[in-house]
Amino acid sequence: MTLNKIIIAASLALSVATAAFAEEPQKTPNTPANATAASAPAVAAPAAVAPAAVAVEPAAPAAPKLTVKKELKANKFITLSMFAIIIGITLGVVIKAASKNKTAADFYAAGGGITGAQNGWAIAGDYMSAASFLGISGMISLYGYDGFMYSVGWLVAYITVLLIVAEPCRNAGKYTLGDILSFRTDPKPVRAVAAIATVAVTTFYLTAQMVGAGKLMALLVGVPYRTAIVGVGILMVAYVVFGGMTATTWVQIIKAGLLMSGAFVLSVLVMAKAGFNPLHFFDMIVNSPDIQDHVTKMLLKDGKTGADLLTGVDAGQRFLEPGLYLKNPLDQISLGMALVLGTAGMPHILMRFFTVPTAQAARKSVIIAMWIIGLFYVLTTLLGFGAAINVTPQGITAVDAGGNMATLLLAQQLGADIAPVFGDILLAFLCSVAFATILAVVSGLVLAASAAIAHDIYVNVIKDGHADQHEQVMAARITSLVVGVVGIIIGIAAEKQNVAHLVALAFAVASSGNLPVVVLSLFWKKFNTAGVIAGLVVGTIASIGLVMVSPNMTYPKLEAAKGAKIIAAMEKKQAALAPGAVLEAKDLKALDKAKADVLNKDGKSILGLDTPLLTLKNPGIISIPMGFMAAILAALAFPSKRSEDMFDEVYVRQNTGIGMAKAIDH
Amino acid sequence: MAEKKYDWGAIARNPKFVELHHKKSAFLFGWWIFSTLYYFLLPIGAAYAPGLFKIKIIGVVNFGYVFALSQFFVSWGLAHYYAHVANKDFDRMTRNLIDELHL
User: Fold this and answer.
1) Do the chains contact at A656 and B97, CB–CB below 8 Å?
2) 3-class secondary structure for A184-209?
3) Which of B71, B96, B101 should one mutate to test binding to chain A, selecting the residue with the greatest count of A CBs within 10 A?
4) Fewest Cβ atoms nearer than 10 Å: which of A67, A279, A557, A634?
């Protein structure tokens, strides 16, 4: 299983939930194991771009500011009760769906019986991961404008889905990426390669989600990491194995509903603090002394001096301007390309279009999804800025350096302002939203990976398409079970790994491998087997290869240099303390890690490098053109008369829906 | 599953189909390019025109914020415009084609 090796080998940083845990509430004594686990994610930010700046406050000997220690404490009883309600409702849906899964079309595409509106909610539920929910609001709460700018690409991505892939895929496809690509090519090799690409994308994404889920649940409700992974894993397997697409769809719809309700309630509370006046809300941001102080410190860290070092209201205003977080424009453009093209190449998103009966319903579903996703990100701005105003950036980083707990802290605080018990309830509600979010996303991924293996590889490659409905459904269920179990094992194995870059990697592969071949298959007459295989292989390998030599990986030499700086800073800090006083627990942790890093100064990255070969964390700007070029050149080099002759059929089908493979196979 | 046989080449040459796919392609790719360019103005502008992004528009709200917010409205607007055109023109043209072919 080279894939597993790649994943486990991959060591780095990001993704929502992963981040969090540098700073667990100090109630637990720090065992060494605990400390190591916590050290890696210290920095991670939401989706793939976290700079590895260890949060060391510049030692200011003058007046070490005492930050108010905020604690995130979910009421276990209320939280677990809400989890139980969600589990109960979703399992009820599964039981109802289970009896209906008689054919492959039922299992993979809910028999084509999902309406446009339902599918729109399900797409939103499938798409918005915990990274969107917790990570982006956290990024806004710490870096202001850049977090908002970052969120835009996640919505704009749906224009590509709407205009280029949704309806053609509904008209020309059946259950999987392989179905679309194998239409006028040599089906066996194309399906096999398409299935591998699908499994690669979903495995990267799933690993990031599982590790995030484990850490988040451990933090929020105090269950051990492994128990959390196994618990989430069992539910995910149950939904998919017994309920197939129907149950997965409903889990996603329920999740999207909960997510929007949570965001809406919290936004109302935030706006109430500003008297429901948006302009006053922005004034509060600019005039918050905590935000101003936070911005000044960030500018100081960036080495700004003199007139560039803003203070007071100017610093507050700076929070609404770009550049506090996203500092490499090329990397941003690269990420933007991966989002805009990658979303439309994500197998679990493509698969959703096979669940609706017509192209019109597919169109409607994207538009509904765009409203939900867009509104959610607009509300996220309110939550992020609201957390900066009410919880303060200092309070947020005291709980998690990456800011991932900002929304939850906000809920706890605004709720408690009304009544202490309401704070517990609101926090518990948002924890269960996070829980439902994880379940919905991982279920969609498991289903997409299983469909690729069972439908493309088993039924169409191994069995030549000769499998009756019963056998197909059995194969799908067994594969889902296996995929789910493998997901749990990888999740446990990757506990100590830095998985943050895996989300970026998933989008890079989807945009460089999958999307070019889907578009060329649907729109270019001369496209053929050689093109599909070359595009998928080159796009996928280029993305993985570029990430392996990017700053996402761990470079022991660079870590050692950073470690040396941290040790120096800590020694200074220690010297400034009263005699006999000890550093705070978080500083001690950072010191331990720094010492370990320095010891490892002769280590090499996974590929034996001392420093990254590439400055980009997001390879899209290089790998996407490579994917397109490989697909086009290979198709021209190995022309196929049959593929050209069949183009009329594909083109007429995708444009008109004539001869559409009926989702309901009788 | 007995699938009906169609003469795909003949359908592809049908003037009604040719008109449909010309109109559709022009619309889809044209607007896709527009929306993509509009989107990339955001990271490019933030990086290379920070002065512009700082200009205050209403109160402390600056151009950068309004521009980022406009991305949402442009996306939603385009989605609805597409749905309008597709429901009105593309779907009707498709139906006319199918009627003519007696499918």
Assistant:
1) yes
2) CCCHHHHHHHHHHHHHHHHHHHHHHH
3) B71
4) A279
Nearest Cβ partner of B60 from A149, A153, A282?
Answer: A282
With beta carbons under 8 A apart, name residues in chain B contacting A326: 43, 46
Over residues B10-32, the mean pLDDT reads 93
Report residue B40's pLDDT band, with 50, 70 and 90 as the boundaries: very high
Tens of pLDDT along A401-417? 888 899 999 999 999 99
Domain assignments of chain B as residue spans, ordered by start: 21-101
Residues of chain A with pLDDT under 70: 1-70, 661-666
Q: Report the complex ipTM.
A: 0.94
Q: CA distances (Å), A422 to each of A261, A412, A436, in order?
A: 16, 8, 21
Residue B91 has pLDDT above 90, yes or no: yes
Q: Which of A652, A653, A654, A664 to mutate to test the interface with B (most CBs of B within 10 A)?
A: A652
CB spacing of A367 vs B80 below 8 angstroms: yes
Smallest Cβ–Cβ distance between B75 and the set A149, A155, A656 belongs to: A155
Its sign, for the CA torsion A140, A141, A142, A144, is: positive
Instruction: Please tell me the predicted confidence (pLDDT) of residue B103.
Output: 67
Which parts of A496-550 fold into alpha helices (H)? Answer: 501-509, 515-523, 529-548
Look at residue A396 in the predicted model and tell me its pLDDT: 93
Distance from CA of B59 to the nearest CA of A (A): 7
Coil/strand/helix, residue A499: strand
Average pLDDT over residues B50-62: 93
pLDDT recorded at residue A500: 72
pLDDT at residue number A350 = 94
Of A483, A431, A364, A86, the C-alpha closest to A250 is A86
A291 close to A392: Cβ distance less than 8 angstroms: yes
For chains A and B, CB pairs below 8 A equal 150
pLDDT at A217: 86
CA distance A554 to A331: 18
Q: A209: distance to nearest CA of chain B, Å?
A: 27
Q: Do B71 and A286 touch (CB under 8 A)?
A: no
Q: Which residue of A has its CA nearest to B67?
A: A149
| CATH architecture classification, A2-24+37-60+80-96+106-555+604-656 | Up-down Bundle (1.20)
Q: Are the beta carbons of A272 and A415 closer than 8 angstroms?
A: no
